[in-house]
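INFO batch 0412 | record 1 of 1 | parsing
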Amino acid sequence: MRFLPDGLIRRRYREEIDLLRSNRDAVAEINKQQFLAWLKILIFIFIILTGISILSSMSSLSYRVLLYSVALCSFCALFFLFRFIGNPTVILIGFYLLFEYLCLLTGILNIYINRTSTCSSSLVILCMVPVTILDRNGRIVAVSFMNAAVLAAASYLVKEYSVAVDDWINLFSFSLVGFFAGYHIRMKKLELFEIQRKTDIQRYYDFLTSLPNRRLLYNDLTGIYAANGPSPVRSVVMIDIDSFKEYNDAYGHVAGDECLKKLAACLSSFVRDRRMTFYRYGGEEFLGVSPLFSAVEAGEFCDLIRHAVYNLNIPHEKSPYGRLTVSFGLSETGMPGATGYTDLINMADIALYHAKNRGKDCFVIYEDGMAFPF
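INFO prediction complete | emitting tokens
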């Protein structure tokens, strides 16, 4: 009888990989936090150990003084080096290198210097590191048991046989504990990340079109203006489906929903290098925000979108064009009265109203003096 069916193992493996991929940002952040936390703890521990070994007058501790001092300097250097690194791959490699360095350090202390006692501190490393690092389970297990095997072999070569046997049992037992505990904790963390990710999607993305919603729009705009960074909003585009109420009356709301999905997909196909980001503003209205385009450049961009929507050839019997069309209203930072993003959105909305009055299926750039007719 097999311990685990092959299908279950493959399913677990795919589930783990999918969770890691879909939550890579959260995984990268927690790995960095835990990596730096490990370094802080180790720096604190080796400050104490170095101080104790220096104050001691025992000549047998001279190796320890050198070893602790080198370790302390190494951990300090790693902390300041990786504190400003954001690349998740580099952080992960650093975590594994730290794992290897700790195993080497504890091996020297537990095997070369303390030849008569068992590997106590090495057991903590083999048990705790697999619990904290977030990566593919197979890689962590392979590294953990490789380190346990190397330490066991070193113990066999240096220590008495009876002590070495105790080391073998302890090293592989604690590696198993690290494996099972680490797998359980890692999967729970990944599942929590996945729950949070799906919650954020429901909160910040429109269910029907999968575009960011108005809540995320205002969060993004608030953050941009609060940060006062180098890439503020330069232009805003309000987009509206022409005669959408009549479309729903003629074809039904299910067809209307499909129409919204097709328009959202069309807008998404124009998102290149984040030159313009589109949001579902509400109903049949969408909003585009660009940090780069002037109003004129945004108008040229919108004209491309207008032709793309026209070429979708979605029938609309209530439209004078016989098919679905969209209109655009544009505003730009620097226009009179544009003191913030709310003004830009309001100006784009006014320009959209004038585009509707000019026959629809066109774009209008806001001009000073434009207003709603009330």
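INFO post-check: The beta strands are 235-241, 277-282, 285-290, 326-332, 363-365.
INFO record closed
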